[in-house]
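Fold it.
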Amino acid sequence: MISKILGTVLLASVITTYAVAKEGNLMKGNVSKNLEFNKENKVVKPLFSESFKVMGIGLTKGQKLEKHQTPTAAFLYVESGKVTFSMKGEVTTLLAGDYFSIPPKEMHEVEAQEDSRLMLIK
């Protein structure tokens, strides 16, 4: 299971850095440049979407993704910054390089303790 998760993280990292367009052109991406912070609103945008989705999320300190759930399992990776992740009454601090596996249909919430860039894979 861990090797599958780590493989997914590696794949997502490769995809967000180098994605092959349908025309066959090599496209380069940069998470920091694609997720510019916005003090008024959190930033959520797709970085890749084929057989699975990689969403980029940019939160400034204090911004949060309010309690919500996802119909499918998801994998949250902290690219930079520091966030608190709350689920089932437990609060976990996640730092750059940390990840959290989110089961389907579980209510959860994410709050930035400092400016943070995240990748959500589902």
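The chain has two helices and nine strands.
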